[in-house]
Amino acid sequence: MSSVTVRVPAKVNVQLSVGPLREDGYHDLVNVFHAVSIFDEVVAKESEAITVRVNGKWSDQVPVDDSNLAIRAARALAKHAGRTYGADLVINKDIPVAGGMAGGSADAAGALVACNELWGLGLPLEDLMEIAGDLGSDVPFSLIGGTAVGTGRGEQLSELPTGGTFHWVFAPAIGGLSTASVYAECDRLRQASGAEVPWPQLNDSLMEALGTGDAYALGSNLSNDLQAAALTLRPELGPTLDAGRQHGALGAIVSGSGPTCAFLAIDATHARDLAESLTATGAARTAVAAHGPVQGAVLI
Ligand code: ATP
């Protein structure tokens, strides 16, 4: 095999409940991931060394040194296999960078699947999931996609069957937000308020909405504990979310740690109209319609 291509989706969190700050600096989470049809492609070609190049809209914001998550994933896989391998990785990027849509994690998952194939390792998904968990808490989900509940730091995953397709609009913002800074702001706001932080609980109404494919019920149950912090850091996101609601979005939230805004639409036509209205009125610079759930990293 001289070249392999993997397609891997972005995610939105339809519930992100953040527990109190733990002594190890992490938070216990209840994190309901939902994979949506905005994709990066990872192409892996035979090569002496592991290298990466990035093409596409957001490419200038992605590092191509050893900090690139796709390189780290390929290295971790080679280490697991106990051999020295090379791969020339090309990422065709469509997922916003530092946008709260797990773009880096998607590329890591894509590189794992691509190199597993390129190098003829034939490792089962369970092994890839284990390596993925060490790379970052969102990477295992990027491998499986669909809809899933993550607990612990987000890395313990259970897949959730959904009763239909949901239609979304995503409005990426100019400039990213670092996930660490959003968690730090969340802790700061909580400390300032002095209120007790409850233990994160899975929302049963949200589960039912996902299971029955009820977009209206899903829209009214979307929640993100990081949203207040993202809005403090980027106040201009507030009017964007309001504009989506005014244009009939069933729910409007910041995606993960932001700053991408996510809007749930009634159906595919409404999603297209909503995306158009958000850009035409200047509420968002760009807006794309997408659907979910979609499968995780897949060879194409
Ligand atoms: P999450 O939703 O998992 O919190 P995110 O979508 O907000 O993550 P990413 O797009 O994963 O953020 O990028 C976070 C940072 O990771 C970027 O600022 C970038 O410097 C770095 N990074 C490393 N490798 C990649 C990659 N392959 N693609 C995108 N960013 C990468």
TrEMBL record:
InterPro entries listed in its UniProt record: GHMP_kinase_C_dom, GHMP_kinase_C_sf, GHMP_kinase_N_dom, IspE, Ribosomal_Su5_D2-typ_SF, Ribsml_uS5_D2-typ_fold_subgr
Active site: K11, D138
Any single Pfam family the record assigns to this protein: GHMP_kinases_C
Residue ranges constituting the GHMP kinase C-terminal domain according to the UniProt record: 206-283
Catalytic activity, as annotated: 4-CDP-2-C-methyl-D-erythritol + ATP = 4-CDP-2-C-methyl-D-erythritol 2-phosphate + ADP + H(+)
GO terms, molecular function: 4-(cytidine 5'-diphospho)-2-C-methyl-D-erythritol kinase activity; ATP binding
Pathway linked to the protein: Isoprenoid biosynthesis; isopentenyl diphosphate biosynthesis via DXP pathway; isopentenyl diphosphate from 1-deoxy-D-xylulose 5-phosphate: step 3/6
Keyword tags: ATP-binding, Isoprene biosynthesis, Kinase, Nucleotide-binding, Transferase
Residue ranges occupied by any GHMP kinase N-terminal domain in the UniProt entry: 68-146
Gene Ontology biological process terms, A to Z: isopentenyl diphosphate biosynthetic process, methylerythritol 4-phosphate pathway; terpenoid biosynthetic process
Entry EC number(s): 2.7.1.148
Chain positions recorded as ATP binding sites: P96, V97, A98, G99, G100, M101, A102, G103, G104, S105, A106
Described function: Catalyzes the phosphorylation of the position 2 hydroxy group of 4-diphosphocytidyl-2C-methyl-D-erythritol.
Family, similarity comment: Belongs to the GHMP kinase family. IspE subfamily.
NCBIfam families tied to this protein: ispE, PRK03188.1
HAMAP family: IspE
The name this protein goes by in its record: 4-diphosphocytidyl-2-C-methyl-D-erythritol kinase
Species: [Actinomadura] parvosata subsp. kistnae
